[in-house]
Write a structure and sequence with these properties.
This is ROK family protein. With 418 residues, this protein is of the alpha/beta class. The protein has 3 domains: 10-101, Orthogonal Bundle (Arc Repressor Mutant, subunit A), CATH 1.10.10; 107-222 and 391-404, Nucleotidyltransferase, domain 5, CATH 3.30.420; 230-384, ATPase, nucleotide binding domain (Nucleotidyltransferase, domain 5, 2-Layer Sandwich). It has 13 helices and 17 strands. A hairpin with a 5-residue loop joins strand 13 (237-241) and strand 14.
Length: 418
């Protein structure tokens, strides 16, 4: 029989932690809370099967979570037979103990902080978005205080739209367009990246008492896609944010990769790749090549360069110039994905971000070309999450933190939980 979490040491990356009673309580609570969150109602028997815990341990964990306000017990509405009793037996079972998540326990925030705009999404503890708001930065290169002010305003507006307040926030996941190491520190070796090193974690902690989990936006996109996108459940996955600039979130064997300074998945190396030459994204390439066509008199739209959306629309209508641009983009993306396959060997590569709504038109060309450039072509899809992909991942990141720290977090309006 496989050992349960009650019986083994807890193995973490590159270390082994002794299974102390305190650690086991925390791990067991995380497992139970995660399963209760993922379903409407869970019985004790179901939680035993899902977690590998004994009935006594499941009940003890559930009662602790009830006392702390995380879950609620429902009245028994059906009978639950002991494992040794056949369903055909005339003997009666005992009432099933049924548990559900307490929807009023609190909320989490998911933030997508770009160079020009920021979006805040409020989600309940099942991950359902109940409020959203966006803000725009006056310029890209603005003072840190102003960037924080815009982010905070978007958070407040989203909370108001959700009918809740800052005191209900248990954690906030925040994605930025810069590398972030495992400790939440921004890599500032490039000027653009340094624009996001504004002290957001400290500022929101001082303003509201929030725990802010800072992460690279492409990494959060990968978490979101693996949770609720076309890559759901895939353990070896790469998500390419492919709008203006390319960036990748890499999941290997179910684990998000960061690298030493958080720069795993950065695509600056594409400057050196033959047939690619830059990390420009799909929207940027569509505009650039449309402008080239306009200058040469080959473009539609009255001889003027078109937006990326217009290029895709013209291609769908059969415009030869637009179709030629899409063919060039498909080859460029096939070469990019081939390089990713060479060092990460993913099962699936997902094209994500706002451009995903149009990028489906590129898939046949990319799929046909990949075997020319790599011996290990992955499955290529587009994300169904659209421009919400980063906030979805940020919400998941915040929920993971909440579940892992449920025994340490004090829920709003409750005291004496420990």
């Amino acid at each position: 029989m496989s050992p349960t979490v009650e019986e083994v040491n807890i193995v973490l990356p590159q270390t082994v932690v002794a299974a102390t009673p305190q650690l086991l309580r925390r791990v067991n609570a995380q497992a139970v809370l995660g399963h209760v969150r993922s379903t409407d109602v869970a019985t004790g028997t179901e939680l035993m099967a899902l977690t590998g815990l004994t009935r006594a341990s499941v009940i003890a964990v559930c009662e602790d979570l009830i006392r702390r306000g995380w879950i609620r017990e429902l009245d028994g509405a059906r009978m639950e037979l002991p494992a040794t009793v056949s369903p055909e037996s005339p003997r009666k079972g005992r009432p099933a103990r049924r548990f559900e998540l307490n929807p009023a326990a609190g909320v989490v925030l998911g933030l997508d902080i770009g160079a020009a705009t920021t979006t805040a999404a409020v989600a309940d503890l099942r991950g359902n978005v109940i409020g959203r708001a966006s803000g725009r930065f006056r310029t890209t290169d603005i003072p840190a205080k102003e960037r924080i002010r815009v982010v905070d305003a978007a958070c407040r507006q989203a909370l108001e739209a959700a009918g809740t307040d800052p005191g209900q926030v248990l954690a906030a996941g925040a994605g930025i367009a810069a590398p972030v190491d495992r400790d939440g520190n921004v890599l500032v070796t490039q000027h653009f990246w340094s624009l996001f090193d504004v002290g957001l974690r400290t500022a929101l902690k001082e303003l509201h008492g929030w725990t802010v989990l800072l992460e690279n936006d492409a990494n959060l996109a990968a978490l979101g896609e693996r949770w609720r996108g076309s890559g759901a459940g895939v353990d070896d996955l790469v998500v390419l944010l492919a709008g203006e600039r390319l960036g990748a979130g890499v999941i290997e064997c179910g684990r998000l990769l960061h690298g030493r300074a958080g720069a795993a998945g950065e695509m600056g190396y594409l400057d050196l790749v033959e047939g690619v030459g830059s990390s420009d994204g799909i929207a940027s390439l569509a505009r650039q090549w449309s402008a080239e066509g306009a200058a040469a008199g080959r473009s539609g739209a009255g001889g003027h360069p078109a937006s990326a959306r217009r290029v895709f629309e013209d291609a769908a209508a059969g415009d030869p110039a637009a179709l030629g641009i899409l063919d060039r983009i498909a080859e460029r993306m096939a070469r990019v994905i081939a390089t990713v396959s060479g060092f990460a060997n993913p099962e699936q590569v997902v094209i994500g971000g706002a451009v995903a709504n149009s990028a489906g038109a590129l898939l046949p060309g990319i799929t046909a070309l990949l075997p020319r450039f790599t011996a290990t072509p992955p499955r290529v899809t587009v994300s169904p999450l659209g421009d919400a992909i980063v906030t979805v991942g940020a919400i998941r990141h915040a929920l993971d933190y909440v579940e892992a720290n449920a025994l340490e977090l004090a829920l709003p309006g409750r005291t004496g939980q420990r």
